[in-house]
Amino acid sequence: MDNNNMMPELTLTPFAEKPAEKPAEPEVPAAQDAEKDLGVTLTPEEKKMVADFAAKIDITDPNIVLQYGAGSQQKIANFSDSALQNVKTKDLGEVGDMITSLVGELRDFEDDDSTKGFLGFFKKQTNKLEQMKTKYDKVDVNVEKIATALEDHQVKLMKDVAVLDQLYNVNLANFKELSMYIVAGKQKLDEVRANELPALIEKAKKSNLPEDTQAANDMAAMCNRFEKKIHDLELTRAISIQMAPQIRLIQNNDTVMSEKIQTTLVNTIPLWKSQMVIALGLAHSQQALKAQQQVTDLTNELLKKNAEALKVSTIETAKASERGIVDIETLKQTNETLISTLDEVVQIQNDGRAKRKEAEAELARIEDQLKNKLLTMKG
């Protein structure tokens, strides 16, 4: 159904079966002032529809006054309920949480350089790349989940835009219908106040009968009630006027959000993936560079250490080759020790010789003493 071509429908009994039509009443002249006041433009066909409908209005019938425009008001209420379902906040919470988690993972897409030293470096390189690949796989899965969720949400947003467009057309038709009810009501009210009410008042003045006076008062009261009813329709119409820009605003927001999602899907997410691939490539290059640097450093260190060891060994060897079997100092010390020993031996021999001489003399003396003693004993 094309909502743009929806024809307004005017009825005095919106909630009941249509009764048999009354005989046509005299046509009520179109109220151009009512159209100007409302700021609406009616087609000739719509103006005839309003005039024909105004002629059928019987403001003395309480049910007609009560239900006047109620069908159109109900359409606005039903429309508002439908619009409310689309006004509700779009559920981006899950996607937001996923993106927040992903941002943390992307920021954590770094290396752990806690292992130090040459051997530690090679041990670390064994696990580093695997860790980065594991992180990449995890991030890639989450990116795909976000992309799927965003695609689903984009589809929902585009459906909402289409539904809101239909609601806008329904609201536009209801607005025109309400305007026609108001114009017809004002036409009828102006006609009654210009013709029927003055006639009843004049009749009451002339007859001075209570029933004629009451009839005039009743008509005036009915005119007031019908005027209030028209005012209620004008309030409903004002709500309908406000709904139009609100619908367009929601449509615009949904469209902008859908465009942003499309940008994320075709630009941002591929950029994330390409940057992660670049990060892995850089990690490969950095690891190769660090490994080469470590090898170079180790080679230089080994060369320096070997050169130093060779120097020390060569010097020691040269010193050893130039050294005699026995050092001169050793010979000198040995000779001095030998001479000292010989001197001491000679001294000991001399001392022994002298002591022997003294002993011989002492023995001779002892022998003489013994002889003398023996001679003395014989005498």
How is this structure best described in words?
The chain has 379 residues and is mostly helical. It has 2 domains: 302 residues, no CATH class; 52 residues. The chain has 8 helices and no strands. Helix 2 crosses helix 6. About 7% of the residues have low confidence.
What overall geometry do the principal axes of the alpha carbons give? rod-shaped
Largest sheet: none
How much of the sequence is in beta strands?
under 5%
Low-confidence stretches: 17-31, 111-123
The secondary-structure element order is HHHHHHHH
Overall tally of structural domains: 2
Q: Please estimate the helix content.
A: over 70%
Distance between the termini: 190 Å
Query: What's the tally of helices?
Result: 8
